[in-house]
Specification:
Elements: E1 6-12, H1 30-33, H2 37-49, E2 54-58, H3 72-76, H4 86-95, E3 101-107, H5 113-126, E4 131-136, H6 143-146, H7 155-175, E5 182-185, E6 190-192, E7 202-203, E8 208-209, E9 224-227, H8 232-241, E10 244-247, H9 252-268, E11 277-286, H10 290-303, H11 306-317, H12 344-348, H13 356-362, E12 371-374, H14 376-390, E13 394-398, H15 404-419, H16 432-437
Parallel strand pairs: 1-2, 1-13, 2-3, 3-4, 4-9, 9-10, 10-11, 11-12, 11-13
Antiparallel strand pairs: 5-6, 7-8
The structure holds flavin mononucleotide (FMN).
Length: 464
């Protein structure tokens, strides 16, 4: 039987996070809609109508200020600023839907793990088990300062710290409260049995957290764990922790190689290859015919803003490419931010001279996402190729205009995928984890490290 695909809508609580300049496009309603709760509830209903797994929310906490050494361009061109907090829109969307999941980006570099555990447990309760966490270590230079923190860790140390961070949240989510701790015994006048609630007494290199967790066990306990870093250290982190990896490969051949490596790394980490879903980012422009889709793409291009595109790219690379001598090869530069994107452009085309103009032209719409433009049949053909040839499990869809690009996908592409047996026709269960791993799988797989000692921070005694 043909493999079915998972679908997330990839977005951010901001004007438009990846297609710079589209705020001017009359088809874009996120321009001011992003700060209106009804915009979000309507989008969530649309995605649930299309049986999407989740709405996937990116997030940042600083400005894209690398390009030309200033945040001026980013602010002028609405490069992820202004924006809002993704965690606050989730419960409103959950109230408007019954099955759609919500994957929320949250950084281990800014927020303490105790706070993160409480926040995601609360969201998991309020959504009835439909929340996921995209664990990121982040990359914007000025964000740390906004939290009163110093930029003193190397890229890999941020991941080392994140490993211990995960150990703390796992203890809080999985080990602090026993399933039957809440007794609500009116006869004995006891709400919670204190013998079934445990401190975690975590003492490590980076964190000391006594606990216990503030929240009783939520439907999934641990939210579905996503991860998005693609460096070597990021992949090692993903192999250990992630249940879904969000990647952006420029083409199918590059993805195929990487997916194989990731699945092997997961097995080496003591898990089963089926414990992880690999989700590729794609930008889709669909219309009833190929010709109409191409016309749409041309119109979208006319709204693009090259300066905004470059501000976005330089923030990801941590390199001000406006200051590089002509002819400099990007991968010879020191990448200070997202290491996993270092070889991206030579992977797209090793022979091309990646000048400022070439980069901004390539990223003009949908940034670095591979673009799929065409009729519903053409889009479905291409998505099937990614699934069959690269062995990815699904897609984070970027819509160039929002929410219209998502509703077009739901109305035109989803029925075609269903006709081909490539998409579900109803949800599998009530939680996000069941959407990914099947009915009955509300909790983490037993091979997940949340249940094991994570050296060098072994889980402390449950009773203390
Ligand atoms: C596809 C993708 C999406 C990402 N989304 C975010 C995000 O929304 N917020 C954020 O702080 N970091 C995001 N990151 C970067 C992560 O913070 C990542 O943990 C960090 O940059 C290290 O990545 P690396 O392992 O590739 O160097 C993203 C990275 C990729 C590749």
């Amino acid at each position: 039987m043909a493999k079915q695909m998972h679908l997330n809508a990839f977005t951010q609580c901001c004007v438009n996070h990846h297609s710079k300049g589209q705020w001017k496009n009359p088809l874009t309603r996120s321009t001011d809609g992003y700060r209106n709760v009804h915009y979000w509830t309507e989008l969530a209903r649309t995605l649930e109508r299309g049986l999407f797994d989740s709405l996937f929310l990116a997030d940042v906490h600083g400005t894209y200020s690398v390009y030309k050494g200033s945040a001026r361009t980013a602010i002028e061109q609405a490069v992820q600023i202004p924006g809002g907090d993704p965690t606050l829109i989730i419960s409103a969307m959950a109230a408007a839907t019954q099955h759609l999941g919500f994957a929320c980006t949250f950084s281990t570099s800014y927020f303490p793990p105790y706070h993160t555990a409480k926040l995601f447990s609360t969201l998991d309760h309020l959504t009835g088990g439909r929340v996921g966490w995209n664990v990121v270590t982040s990359y914007l230079a000025d964000a740390l300062a906004n939290f009163g923190l110093k930029d003193e860790l190397t890229h890999d140390q941020r991941y080392d710290r994140a490993d211990e961070y995960m150990s703390v949240v796992y203890k809080l989510w999985e080990h602090s409260w026993e399933d039957n701790a809440i007794v609500r015994d009116r006869v004995r006048d006891i709400y919670t049995d204190p013998d079934r609630v445990h401190k975690i007494d975590h003492e490590g290199a980076w964190f000391n957290v006594p606990g216990p967790h503030m929240c009783e066990p939520s439907p999934q306990r641990t939210p579905v764990i996503y991860q998005a870093g693609a460096s070597g250290r990021g992949n090692a982190f993903a192999a250990r922790h992630a249940e879904a990896i969000f990647c952006i490969h420029p083409h199918i051949a590059a993805a195929a190689k990487d997916v194989k490596k990731v699945r092997e790394a997961v097995v080496q980490a003591g898990r089963s290859p089926g414990d992880i879903k690999i989700i590729q980012g794609v930008a889709v422009i669909v219309a009833p015919t190929d010709e109409e889709a191409r016309l749409k793409e041309q119109t979208f291009r006319s709204f693009s803003n090259a300066e905004g595109v470059l501000a976005l790219f330089c923030g990801w690379a941590g390199i001000d490419i406006s200051a590089l001598p002509p002819g400099t090869r990007l991968e010879d530069c020191e990448w200070k931010a997202i290491q996993g994107l270092r070889g991206f452009f030579s992977n797209v085309d090793p022979d091309r001279d990646w000048t400022l103009e070439a980069i901004s032209d390539f990223m003009a719409i949908g940034s670095i996402f591979p673009k799929i433009v065409g009729s519903p049949q053409a889009v479905a053909d291409e998505l099937e190729r990614w699934i069959d040839e690269a062995d990815v499990d699904g897609f984070n869809i970027h819509a160039v205009t929002q929410p219209t690009g998502f509703s077009d996908f739901v109305d035109l592409v989803v029925p075609e995928l269903q006709r081909r047996g490539r998409m579900r026709t109803s949800y599998e269960g009530s939680t996000l984890r069941e959407s990914y791993f099947g009915a009955g799988n509300q909790r983490l797989s037993k091979t997940h490290p949340a249940y094991q000692a994570l050296p060098p921070w072994k889980f402390g005694p449950l009773h203390s």
